[in-house]
Design a protein that fits this description.
By secondary structure, this protein is mostly helical. It has helices spanning 8-16, 21-43, 45-54, 60-70, 73-76, 86-93, 97-109, 131-152, 157-170, 173-176, 180-183, 185-204; strands at residues 113-117, 125-129. It starts with 7 loop residues before the first helix and ends with a helix.
Length: 205
């Protein structure tokens, strides 16, 4: 029996494209889980709860800027050791430089960040966290870890050992499938043609 929410025509397409039956079933289930996860993550429930319960007085966009200034290595990798400028914040968060500048200024004015002179180039202004900014990040992360820790404590050691490496592997799926559209160019062209044909039928009817 096909998984709930699967589309037989899509299943046939995947099988014809060389994707195994067990993988076809997993793709449908994974897509549904990720869509639900995306909707929940877009609301950023846990982060909002943390800021609200801690009474920090800043929003998530401002907290994101503090995180970008701190640049923890588990989120930003090798770039975490670099000096942070407004342009760096914009790049790390993938936001417009003018928006990054505005929010950085808000954090400086609120006392969570400060401007300093670069040690590498005295003409360059860098951004650093103040002790208050560091305290906010530490508190919010501790709050989130407490909640997540409570949830994961219900899992067995075997489940955790299996889940974390697989989640890390899944997080790189877009990097690993960058050329997939080229591989399936024929199938994609057919899908596009079907959309156009369906639209013509609707207009003509």
């Amino acid at each position: 029996m096909p998984p709930s929410g699967s589309n037989p025509e899509i299943d046939v397409l995947l099988r014809a494209s060389g994707i195994g039956a067990s993988t076809v079933a997993a793709v449908s289930q994974l897509d549904a889980v990720l869509q639900n996860w995306r909707r929940r993550m877009s609301r950023r429930e846990l982060g909002n709860r943390a800021l609200q319960d801690l009474g920090v007085g800043i929003d998530l966009a401002q907290f994101d800027v503090l995180i970008a200034i701190a640049a923890p290595v588990n989120e930003f990798g090798d770039s975490s050791g670099e000096e942070t400028m407004v342009a760096t914040v914009a790049e790390r968060l993938s936001i417009d430089p003018s928006r990054a500048s505005r929010v950085v200024s808000e954090m400086v004015e609120a006392g969570y960040a400060r401007r300093a002179v670069s040690q590498a180039d005295a003409r360059r202004t860098i951004i650093r966290l103040t002790p208050a900014g560091e305290a906010v990040i530490a508190a919010v992360r501790a709050y989130k870890y407490l909640i997540l820790g409570s949830f994961l404590s219900e899992w067995s050691e075997a489940e955790l050992a299996a889940f974390m490496p697989l989640l890390e592997k899944l997080s790189h799926w877009s990097d690993r499938t960058a050329n997939a559209a080229t591989r399936f160019s024929g199938e994609i062209a057919t899908l596009s043609a079907n959309i156009k044909a369906s639209h013509r039928e609707k207009v003509e009817s």
